[in-house]
Amino acid sequence: MKTFLLPDLGEGLTESEVVAWRVAEGDTVELNQPLADIETAKAVVELPSPYAGVISKLHAGEGETVAVGAPLIEFDVDGTGGAPAAPADEAAPSPEAGPVATPEAPEATGEQAEAEERSAAAPAAEEPAATDGAEAKPEKVQVLVGSITVHGGKPVRAKRAWEVEPFVREEKRGPNRAMPPVRKLAKDRGIDLQAVRASGADGLVTRADVEGHGSAPVAAPASTREKVTGLRKHTAAAMTQSALTVPHAATFHQVDVTETLALAKAGDASFLALAARAILLAAKRWPDVTASFHADTNELERFAHVNLGIAVSTDRGLVVASIDEAEAMDASALTAAIKDRAVRAREGSLSMAELTSSNITISNVGVFGVDGGIPILNPGESAIIALGAIRRLPWEHEGQVVLRDVCTVTVSFDHRVLDGREAAGFLADIAAVLERPALALAR
Amino acid sequence: MSLTMPAPDPQLALGLDHPLRVLDLDGSRLPSDVLDPHLTDVDETALTNLYVDMVRVRRLDTEAFALTRQGHLVLWPPLLGQEAAQVGPARALRQSDWVFGSYREHGFALLKGVDLAEFARVWKAYAHGGWDPHEITMAPAQIIIGAQSLHATGFAMASKMDESDDVALACFGDGATSEGDVNEALVWASAFQAPVVFLCQNNQYAISEPVRVQSGTPLALRPTGFGIPSMRVDGNDVLAMHAAARIAFERARSGGGPTFIEAVTYRRGPHTTTDDPKRYRDEAEVEAWTAKDPIERVERALAAMGANMDAVREEARIRADELAKELRHAAEHAEPPTVDSIFDHVYAQPTKRLERQRAEHRAFTASIEGNR
Amino acid sequence: MTETLTLAKAVNAALADSLEGDDRVLLMGEDIGQLGGVFRVTDGLQARFGTQRVIDAPLAESAIIGTAIGMGYRGFRVVAEIQFDGFIYPAFDQIVAQVAKLRYRSKGRASVPLTIRVPYGGAIGSVEHHSESPEAYFAHTAGLRVVTASTPQEAYSTLRAAIASDDPVLFFEPKGKYYMKGEVDRTVVRDLETASIVAQGRDVTIAAYGPTVETAMRAAIAAADEGIEVEVIDLRAISPLDVDTVVDSVRRTGRLVVAHEAPGEGSVSSELITSVVERAFSSLEAAPARVTGYDTPYPPSAVEHDYLPSLDRLLDAVDRTLGRRSSRDGLVLEGAR
Lengths: 443, 372, 337
Hints:
By secondary structure, chain B is an alpha/beta fold.
């Protein structure tokens, strides 16, 4: 058995049509006897028989289009019939025959379309494997912009003769660039090019920049600029607004909080919650500390409840989370509420109402190890209380100098709403309860 | 054919009105004052040899044509109908004379002694050249139309400088006469009286274009304007072609300078196996020329001379079959070129640049799993 | 409205529409009339527009171009066909010494609105002189526009633009893609000097033109399997070359591979890489790479697929620019420095 594959009958053709058969299955034919008329894109041509023998099968009907490299005719050349041979002609050199054969073998390159091109270019009888590709359906493949129609399946890369390392995209490059010798210098010295101060235009790092890096006094940039977005941008705007429109004043008080701290350690209320209780008790006596001044209408707005804001520092910036109607809460409930606000502030899951409803704020700056400062008022509020770090200090206590736990409490206030006397009174009341928590029973 | 322009010197061109012919269509011998003196030694045996040569050339051509349709060769420019126009002059050459032909000069190649195994590789796209030019004294087949006419002229000038009597034969077609190269070759050959013979096989078509697109005069008149004598010969008459070539070669060898021969013939097949002649000419025209078949004409002549035609035909058939078998075997079993050979023979010595590319390509090939 | 055409038919449509739209357009070339061209690209045009407008030329390439110059003086727009790339050299003098320079030496008072169509490139399994890529010879000559096409749509629109141009244009048709089918919208207008980004990617830029664009696109698809994003630029114009588009791309990707069928020495890739290095040197993360025909004559077509840029050769070059393992790792060249 011999299988005859349709060859490229003109330069670079991909397919041809069988116009007419001049023989039928079962006919005995001579070598070079005309078998069919084949129409290509260029001409109708006569196909002479490549073998003497019996036609055992015609693979295409008249009018049918056949891909170059596809089987066209089966011949029984030895008169024995038998099983159809693989579509490899004995005339075809075996892939091992020549040192060249390997790159031509489609399975070696792994790329069907090129195999198809090859089959179009080379005598079809020599490219039996190309028939698979020739029969595959064209497929449109999108390539981000536009698309191409691929024949013979999706293009695939040939398997390489080594184990391929996965491709890892480099981190996005920083703004710094450098000429190759400078890059090499940086690499040789183990210097990250992006950490080097670039003296050239558009982030160009020079040889001198790399050579100066590290050995010279820290060549930190004189300044850097970073785009401010999101919460930080919002905080910036709010603080600016508050600082520029509200006449701030502040007052301080060093307080012996030994007893309150002992209370916190003994019970389930946190020191911060106990301090909040002290503030809430003081606020009851000085209600204007939760009032809001409206400059546009020269009105003072007073609130029925104390919505206690807790300032929380997060990765994204500062937020003030409100514990509404805090005056009704006991220390234990406040402890839970403060913890809840802190967690959710860091998660970013606070509601807009929780972020905007406070009317007085506590800022626990002591966690940063400082004793105090003058906090800027949360916009719309009249007082903000900063709690400093608790320190063991020598302190006069009951006529003796002993080590006591001491905390600086600061109140910043809107001087349009409160004057010094009221602010000092408010602060003194806070301090009194913190010093002697038992006083709370009386207030 | 009538003339549309007067010849500058009509004496220089022979056969303008009727192509020179000594064998009539029916095989009878026609007298020719010009050609007969050069055919005195051509007897039945010599004519039989020419006959066998033509049958072999035809068989080479038809087998190669079929091999192309069967996918064993990639392209073939057939010469069917032009056998006499090649065999006649080829058998008038000495081995030391050089042929500078186009891509259709298979008859010359065969009679010059080409190795078919190497020859087949060209048309299988395995090689660019099909023979050793110095071994068979024939330049590589030329695809660029007419370019070889200048090479032939240069060879002839050199032969003259060497005081050799080797001549050069430039073969081209009717279409080539339009190319600058051919016209420049005529200028040079005339100016230097070079021993070159220009054989124009006017097969009536340059691919699809009939000869009237190339010329308003018989092509044989053209060289007279350059001062080159010419003959217009029946290209399907092997004896006339043989005699005309003898005249031209003798003139060249004896210092008489160039000669132009227009062989009036016909390409009965397509330009190449990718062509479709039905688009540009009638079947009737092909049939008319088939009736002027150069081989049948000689068969009739030999029969008229009393030859044993059965024996002659049998001998020709056997030799043609041998040739066809050899060609088929060559086409089917040719070893493909190695990829490495891409880089061979670009310069006399390999350059560093090419050696680098060769190494890079080897490395690339080896990078594909399963190679080497 | 679009229609599905082969690239050859798209060229035919562009010629037909140009002939239809301007009666000073005419075609000249060998076998383009009655035969319809050796690739049947001009099929039916002589029957439709007559022998005065679709002219079968004598076999004289120099004369085809030379006479077109004369016709240009009388306002004809000649579309000349050079039958095969390898046959253009007899016309070389007329193209580079005459066509290219007429506007310059006449101080703009005379010009040659000539389009020279050249089927070029390989992969058709043909014999010598039928598979060459001679575009660099012409790109080197000032005054000529040299363009290519990569798809039927590009062929249609770019050829229309070439014929309409008042400059002489060499239009190189990728004959290996003549039977490539694609959608063609005849209203799409293209210019003669802008490259197109035909695939976007972040990792490597491949710049190619003509028949090699499809190979580059296939490489981009295959590379995506490994997570590598390849940006593919169809240069379209070889001269003048759209360096801006390539420089912009390289500033983003940092890596460049240039591919074409023509040999690399003194080629379009030589020019393009030089220009990119001049303008975007510090953006390059790796040395540019190229995949071209080797610096040999076009080989016998039995081995042409080793000579031509292939998907795997392209990706090997991509790997090289990415610093990944490539076939050249460990390649030791005797006597090389």
